[in-house]
């Protein structure tokens, strides 16, 4: 079963999602990778205004390729998330409710997810062209000088995602491994 989910992402929505849930996300999300995250945290530490309000928002870790003629965006596959781990807790503590990427997160990020009742979604690596079809609008709102790593405001429709870490800190990576190991034990006893 796929869960239809619309932004903004509020605590009442995040608290219902569980690790392993399949989601079709629609609404506004923002793109940012490590260079943009560094600039955002510098603004925060210098008590300056961010280029967007991150409360109840989602950041997609992506650096899309240039759009082909007639297209909104180029290929838009997820970036490996651990590159944002040193920045994520600060943004989560300021109200960010969701992150989209690929790969595991460190314990500090997981604690910040739990503390803020946030969500970490996984996007399918290698499906960049397919994911791009879910992006119906895209505009650079900050750091155009960063090229592919500029911050974009994107409108998505039915973007396919999986909840990797839910608001309680449950991780699909751990749950999936446990289920697999249990199935091997049951199978080997037969």
Automatic annotation (TrEMBL):
It comes from the Bacteria. Coiled coil: none annotated. Residues 2-174 form the Fe-S hydro-lyase tartrate dehydratase beta-type catalytic domain. One of its GO terms (molecular function) is hydro-lyase activity. Keywords: Lyase. Belongs to the class-I fumarase family. This is Fumarate hydratase subunit beta. It comes from Clostridium uliginosum. The lineage of its organism: Bacteria, Bacillati, Bacillota, Clostridia, Eubacteriales.
